[in-house]
Amino acid sequence: MKKRDFDKINFKKVEIQKNKKTQKNSSLEEYDLQMKKFQEKEKKKVELQKRLQKEKENFLNFFNKKIGIEEIKNSFKIIILFLVGVIIFIFYLNFVTFKGDLKGEKILYVKMDGSRGSILKINNKYLKNQASIKNTKNFEYGTYLINFDVKRITTKNNYTTFDGKIIGWKESKLNIFRKYILNIFDDLFLTEDNLYAFSKAAILGEKSEVSKDMKDKFKYTGLAHLIVISGTHISLVIIGIVKLLDMISLAYRPKYIFALVILTFYCALIGFSPGILRAYIMGAMMILARILFEKEDSKKSLLISFVVNVVLNPYSIFDISMQLSYMAVIAIIFVYPPIKKFFEKSIFSKIKNEILRNTVDLMFLSFVIQFTSIPLFLYYFQKLPLFSFLLNIIGVPIGTIVIQILFFIMLVNILKITFLNSILVFITKIVFGSFEGFIYAGSKIPLLQIEVSQKFSILFIFSFYIILFIIVFKIIPFFIFDKK
User: Fold this and answer.
1) pLDDT per residue over 156-202, tens digit each?
2) How does the protein associate with the membrane (predicted)?
3) Where are the alpha helices (DSSP H) in 190-230?
4) Do residues 132 and 162 make contact, with C-beta atoms less than 8 angstroms apart?
5) List of domains in the chain
């Protein structure tokens, strides 16, 4: 074979090998390319699955918020717990209720207020109906343990009156302090009839001096809560004590411990009625939260205060003042926040002036409290409050100032700083005169409340609150969620 032919053959071999190598490289590149495409496809598939899963979860959450399917189980549990609570309450009520013969010699625990005394307990048991005895011994305002011989019993409109003879009595030691404080107001305001009556009612809860005309005016203008010791008064006591202790630079924890002690003594002094007990427990839990550096929980405090109230006096659940007290707090804690949130953008956010914003806020809050209490007013009093909530915008701040001054007068006299009395009494008369004038003018405004001749059933009350519950906790959150 010639060398030339041999070179050709070698060249072809080299070409073939190069082609094979090239084909092999191109195959590997193609394989890598296909693998990359496959991996990208799989990655997109996984991302798509994740996105679909997320959209599914979002849809389910959205669906649940709209329809409330997920909450049905929780609602069912709440209903079961409620029914169990009702059964326990019925058994407990039966256990603590007096069932014997009411006539004869009995031990009565009585709270005297004027010409009559309310019977709180009989032989350490509770009565089904509210009952009272005449204050034949002219006992001063306070609580007494009375040995009473019941001769005759009369009942009218579920209210019982015991007639008989007082055999003996034992006075509560706290009455000494009550008398001391009452004497302070006797010395300073005895000649000022309405101011004298208001000071005793607003500071110590003694309403015997409050005339029917004065009560009617306060009720009509929607300011009756200022002459009944309530959460407002307890809040003023707490704030006042804390501010005074801040002035002497008392340490954080001792300051609140001292405030709790004073609050407890004050509430024991005026008597733990259902409304006062509710306000005291909520106030005490707020103070304890600060002492222990815990987060304040008004909802938990409200629930605990209700349970304690019912355990200590199961018949308090039927007390009108307790129902109104709890309904007002429920309106503040549960009903008002979602309503305010709903109107935040359309109304509140557009008001730049802070004073005007706070005024509108107070007006909305007063309306919500009044609206939430409407069924109770219709059921018990056959009255429908319409525009009385508007007077709270001015009446509550002025009335609160009067109460603050009265508390301060009580304090300076306890501390024997009596040289301040003349100036404090002068200021009190001016502010109370404005307050009294405002109430008098407000009582002349028509349609603040209207009389309703129709009687309403308990079914109406339940229906109203069920509808209110649906609006506040279902419909309003639904619209807020849709906006988001």
Assistant:
1) 777 788 888 888 888 888 888 888 888 898 888 888 888 999 999 98
2) Multi-pass membrane protein
3) 193-204, 212-220
4) yes
5) 104-172 (2.40.50)
